[in-house]
Amino acid sequence: MKWLPLTGREALWLGSATAIMFWVLRSIYWRLAGFRGECAWEVVRWTAVGLAATLAMLPFYFGGSIGAGDAHWYVLMLSDFLAQLKAGVFPIWVGQSPFAFNGAVSPLRYAPGFQCLGGILDFLTAHSLQPAAVKNLCLAGSAMGGAFSAYACIRPIVGSRRWIACILSILWISGPGVLAPPMSGDQYMTFIALPFVPIVLHGCWRVLEYDDLWGRVWIPLGLAGLWLCHSPIALWLSIIAAAIYVPTALFRGSWSRELWRIAFMAAGFLALGSLPFVSVLMLDNQISVPSPGLAAAIEVHRYFPNNFKPIDPVYHGVADYQLGYALLGTLAVSLLVMGIARRRAAWAFALASIIIIPFTVPVPFLTDAIWGLLPSWFVTINNVWPMQRLFLVWSALVAFTGAIVLGSPRVSGSFWRHALVISALLCGTAWSAREAHKLAAKVRLTRSSPEQTRIMEGLNNTQLGRYAYSSFQSTPGYASHGYMDGWFENRLLDRKSLEPFLTNADAAAPGDGPDAGYSTLVSRGMMTAEDISQSMYYFLRPTLTLEPGKRYAIRIEFLDTGIAGTLQLLEDTMFREYILPDSGSGMDRRGPPKAFGSEQTSGKVLPLSILGKAPAPVKALIITQRATNENFTAARYWLYTYERENLPIRVESWMPYRVRLDSPRPAFLETPRVWLKDWRAIVNGLPVKTDRSPEDLVMVPVEVGQNTVTLQFHPPLILRISFWILFASWCGVGAAVLGWLLSVKRPQAAHV
255: burial class by Cβ within 10 Å (0-12, 13-18, 19+)? Predict the structure, then answer.
């Protein structure tokens, strides 16, 4: 038997974490033991709910990458967040590390829950996991939290019939409405919001049934958590909560007392969840592309009835977002016997479940009319695929409706009726498990090994792409969907024309331009494209051989201007892929293309480097459609080696951004950071005003000769105050939960 490969620090951390975990579990056990002899069965039910959440997310109990483009983007943003935390940056407002050198603000400033949870889990695991594994742990933990939250919130509704609450919680957590976002759409922010959905609905139920203070605590607490995690889900739940609460408030008690209650709820929400609103309002460079409501209606028509068919084990996409037959049957039965239940809250939850139907099902005339009347900002927040948001919310509403109706003594009060309800729900659970297995099988196909993940999502292959730029008004012309080296994205601009006259990329690979000694030429010549088996694939010759540990820059000038296709440069530890003629195509930018490509204005320089221990050949190929399949001369190339510290604009630090340069004339330093008004610059020890470059980047004036430039982000005072109020408030919530756990005394043996 081999020992675990742990350092002394990791062993100490693991021992401490294990002790704390057993301490918390003991407190939970004692808390459960107080329920009049129900301790043993209650532990079984909690275990069943946790096991269901574990099995549903089993593919994510994995140390490597899972998912496609969105998943890669989330890992990059999490990598940047963790890198800043480890560098001592806190609070974190924008991207700053090489993983997000452009100063990305999404999802950090819009929905920071995912990255904050990742930071907490990275700390609790002693920084021992790769960012992709931390991401997987976030999703697995959110599933567990969502399942436990659902059971805890549904259990009071059903009274002593707690097996109904247990099975309904399992139906919710294992249904396609919940599992499709992480497994079919890489929608991790949606999934991170999971634990807060039942809290909001539980608060609504308490207000309807008891009209007490606790209901008014849970609603703002849950909504605050949702807005921190995912604004579309939060928007829908806010509307549902308001629709349930407002009529209740109007017909109960005095209005003056209700105003005080509303003020209490508003204060709680502002303390716990106002940060995303303040943060977004403080951004002065946001994209503004409203979505028409009919676009959402078109998507609803397109995917119906596939959203109501069994999961296709081959197809992978929006049709996987479903309510599922088990919850659909639960809703149908609940509506049929609702009159028997005679529970006050049943009508409100059933009505909310029914009203969602025309938003997700193409009801003639009604669906188009509803989406056509909605304001564009609402559709923009929701996106044009409402099923990606609403099926999760709808699933929760159905589970609560089922609990209110089926858990009623009038419906399941006798032994045989209770047994019948349990049996039907168990059959639904078996069906949901089958559908969840299909989703799990599909998501497993997207997994990469931990070693592959370490290489492909490391700094040597980081691809920011359009995701890191899409939240800004416009994208810099230099931005590419492929790999970008932040060190190359530094330029000196002429003071008058604002055109670049000195760039790190051109200094690394000058081609036929003047060689200023920043780099060393390795080889040059013509690249010939050799046809591969009469296909669209052409190998580029000669083969380039790179040495590990060296940085290379290759300059490629295509002879066929505007050639379309894809360029790939591949090695076991390096992946480069660029769309031709413009690798930045599809980005919302101004002016001609400047990203790498084959256009006349396109960039020509690519950074190359490999890992490993021995020199290795790089497979270069171009994928393009031509009239004939003959070989052709594709481009001229120059291959150089260079050192980052020898580039004319030397980046000494990314956190904060600090460079040294020797400018031949007064100029602007165009940094890689996308413009925001809160960037502050210091040049040679003196503060200077930052400006917005034509490429929507932060530029700083520099003078002739040696310059040291530091760029730091200074958020407005109101944003900092909002953060620390939120931080203190959530710490207070955590302390209250911990105090609740520890306040219970050890039960007597007779109670067990």
Answer: exposed
